[in-house]
Amino acid sequence: MRRHLRKGGTRAGAMRQAQAAEASLIRALTRTARAVTLRIEPLLKTEGLTLDGWLVLDALVAGDGLTMTELAGRTLVTGPTLTRVVDRLVTTAAAYREVDAEDRRRVRVYLAPRGRSAYQRASAKLAELEEELDPGGEVLAKLVSVDPG
Questions:
Q1: pLDDT averaged over the chain?
Q2: Domain of life of the organism in this record (predicted)?
Q3: Which of 9, 36, 119, 144 has the fewest beta carbons closer than 10 A?
């Protein structure tokens, strides 16, 4: 603790600084995201999904027939990872690709029946976990009320 004290500083000031550093919003959100991910992954694994795979299925449920660019925007999964995730979903028949009828240079990804079933089963498990983590939905309400700018 002594090495953190500057000339003229107080022990109480150093304690407040340390507490402020520990209470960092970014650190707290990052730690929370990682902790939740650790809880989610085993639930998804039982359905043969990864977190990124579930995010892709979630995007496809909301808007079937998405381009890779649209999927990347909705899931925030980066290009190379997204390609691997979609390849795996196609291999397991959870999704399929088709060339865009209007622009043959683009490929669209669609949700297959097997993917919809896996998504529904996984979503039910995730809903239970969500209820456990945020029983009244107050945390979710605060998070979705933040205007991203």
A1: 88
A2: Bacteria
A3: 144
What is the pTM (predicted TM-score) of this model?
0.78
Q: Of residues 49 and 139, which shows the higher confidence score?
A: 49
How far is Cα 39 from Cα 126, in angstroms, rounded to an integer? Answer: 9
In the 3-class helix/strand/coil scheme, how is the chain assigned residue by residue?
CHHHCCCCCCHHHHHHHHHHHHCCHHHHHHHHHHHHHHHHHHHHHCCCCCHHHHHHHHHHHHCCCEEHHHHHHHHCCCHHHHHHHHHHHHHCCCEEEEECCCCCCCEEEEECHHHHHHHHHHHHHHHHHHHHHCCCCHHHHHHHHCCCC
Which CATH number is 10-136 given? 1.10.10.10
